[in-house]
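> example.struct
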């Protein structure tokens, strides 16, 4: 098996049909239209128009103008407009797929992850009343420690504390007592 085929197989194995189905249903509910029968998830999203429509419903005016006609470059520009709008909405850069992930179907799992990240981000926007996709992000991770637990934490010494002293001394002795003879 060639390296390219192995990489494609690994990426394809990351795809989760259940997550794709959930993402598709979420998009369909928001846009109030079904994906056409016989058209795959990635084919329907490929030109970026559906994605621009989606972000415009979630965040009105996020993509004021997108391309409905034109060649490959114009359609890839739609994907870029969607990506920028997602980031402006609050989706972390690391959660946004690369254009080739969708356009060349290189990593559809990452496209689905972006939709889930967008779905989670909608929880943080009170103007959005749903539907939502994915679990609600936590607002805080509050912890209550007793006075006894706090005092116990003060007695713990970090793993590296005091451990590099010997390394420094050993480094100073490297080469000590050796003679280097060049040419004879």
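> example.seq
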């Amino acid at each position: 098996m060639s390296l390219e085929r192995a990489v494609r197989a690994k990426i394809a194995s990351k795809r989760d049909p259940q997550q794709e189905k959930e993402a598709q249903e979420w998009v369909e509910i928001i846009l109030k239209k079904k994906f056409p029968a016989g058209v795959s998830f990635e084919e329907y999203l490929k030109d970026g128009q559906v994605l621009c429509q989606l972000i415009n419903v979630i965040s009105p005016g996020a993509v004021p103008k997108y391309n409905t006609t034109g060649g490959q470059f114009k359609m890839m520009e739609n994907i870029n407009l969607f990506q920028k709008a997602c980031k402006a909405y609050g989706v972390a850069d690391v959660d946004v797929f690369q254009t080739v992930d969708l356009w060349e179907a290189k990593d559809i799992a990452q496209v689905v992850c972006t939709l889930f990240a967008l779905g989670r981000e909608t929880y943080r926007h009170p103007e959005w009343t749903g539907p939502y996709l994915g679990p609600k992000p936590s607002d805080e991770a509050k912890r209550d420690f007793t006075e006894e637990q706090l005092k116990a934490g003060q007695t713990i010494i970090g793993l590296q504390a005091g451990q590099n002293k010997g390394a420094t001394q050993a480094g100073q002795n490297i080469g000590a007592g050796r003679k280097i003879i060049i040419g004879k």
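> remarks
The mean pLDDT is 84.
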